[in-house]
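Review form for a predicted model. The reviewer records the input and the model, then writes brief findings.
Reviewer: anonymous (R2)
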Amino acid sequence: MQSIVKEVLPRITLQEFNIDKKQPRHKARFYVELDWDKFYMQFPIMQELKSEFMNLKEHFGRESEFHEQFTTFLNDTMPDIENIETSQEYIMTLNTQAMRENKTKNKEVFKLYKKEEALAESYKAIQDLQKPAEIIDNSLYFQRFDIDNNVFLPHLGLGKLDVFPLSKSPIQHKNEILHKFHSNPKYKQNFALYSISGAFNILYIPSHIQIARITRTYDYHFSFLYAVCKKVRAFIIDTVNFNNDDDSDQPIGVWDYENVGFDLYNSIQQYLGDEAKFNIKGVNIDLRKPARMAFSIETKENRHILYNSHFKKSQAHFNLGCDFFLYSSAFLDMDFSDTQMQDTAIIMKK
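Model under review:
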């Protein structure tokens, strides 16, 4: 794992998006890339989650969030969709001019073209994009799979309740936490990924769609308009900006300045204390503030507990550092052409 990190990270290059600088932009103007296969898929957590983030029925079937997102998109962009009487194949395209103008809504950026139809000058087929960074906003997608803190936690051998020492002495608690973490080499490898990238998302955009009218006559006549997802392109994206999404302050570790290193046990305690949220029989219980007071970070000179706010203050004071997006350098192409229609068919109109 060390060889992977040493090989990949030194080659990261900060690049600037191809955008119109005269247009207002409230998000990062820069990005970096990490290789999907040579980097992300080398970590155990990604290998173990592969069957989940590539689950066809879960992400693109009738009961998925994709159904709602795509139905809204079609209603916004194809007002005459009800006139379709036969089967028609479409390709998803990207309005490159809208991208440069920092448009952030699906209906402003994406458009379906018939497979045989010529594209307007400013449009480019999703299937022809060379890299995910050509999609320059993390709000442009039709489905997503979040690899967030709650997903990471069991892959580190830990649980939310590990923050509380209960009846154990501080030394017993520390030994128990470290024993859990070191009990499987996969946990340390997964923590290495979390330390580098933090939580991130996999976003999905369909590149090939079939829309068909299905009509049957038995004792009565009925007709359905189906949309079938044939091919999808997925990519990893993360925002590296040290901003807080709500009133909480995201932890970024406990650092030991004396030994110039990362304090593992106390960073785990900080992380777990921030994640002490539970749902028991439909009742939300938030113990983050009591937990932050309850979990014990060992006091020691030159040990510093850092949160997002510390980075933002130093950024403002010293005028150093910048926000950026982190992308996978390539797409994960998923082809469902040979699967049964009902696996990805969603009813659009009756």
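Findings: Confidence is low (pLDDT under 50) at residues 276-297.
Further findings: The CA atoms of residues 58 and 71 lie 17 Å apart.
Recommendation: see findings above.
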